Amino acid sequence: MAAAGFPPIVGGLAQPGAGAWFVGGALAALGHGMTVYNIVQVSYRQAICPDRLLGRVTAGIRFLAWGTAPVGALGGGVLGETIGLRATVWVFAGITLGAAVLLVLSPLRTAGTPAERAPDAAARPGS
Predict the structure, then answer these.
(1) Is the dihedral angle over the CA atoms 37, 38, 42, 45 positive or is it negative?
(2) Crossing angle for the helix pair 19-48 and 6-13, nearest 10 degrees?
(3) What is the DSSP letter of 17?
């Protein structure tokens, strides 16, 4: 996730011509990184969430992730019309890098699984 800010920066710096190849490579790297991130975050969620709540937690996360996409698309369109496309790409790059920094500095990065935090957690029913 921390590398997710790289493709927008490349997009903001790209010029017509050969720059399209750099943007294509950056987007391919972003696609690979998103795949790895999704696998890790779903696996982590399944490891820490009690079975009886997993459906609710998954539904809530999908609602937040997919439900905000239209809002972001609308905001990006308005921003692109207002300040221009290249400036909008730079705004997106800054937001993405900011989110990555928050994740890297977050205590979630070192949280571990319940079994790692409390050795007896695996022995308790419902955990």
Answers:
(1) positive
(2) 160
(3) T
Whole-angstrom distance, CA of residue 60 vs CA of residue 54: 10
Q: Domain of residue 55: give its range.
A: 2-123
- Spatial distance between the Cα atoms of 8 and 6, rounded to a whole number of angstroms: 6
Total domains, the chain? 1
- How confident is the model over 68-113, as pLDDT tens digits? 999 999 999 999 999 998 899 889 888 888 888 888 888 877 776 6
Q: Is the pTM of this model over 0.70?
A: no
The contacts of residue 116 (CB under 8 Å, 6+ apart) are none
Give the rounded distance of the alpha carbon of 70 from its chain centre: 16
What are the tokens at 77? 């369109």
Q: In the chain, which ranges are E strands?
A: none
Mean pLDDT over residues 112-121, rounded? Answer: 60
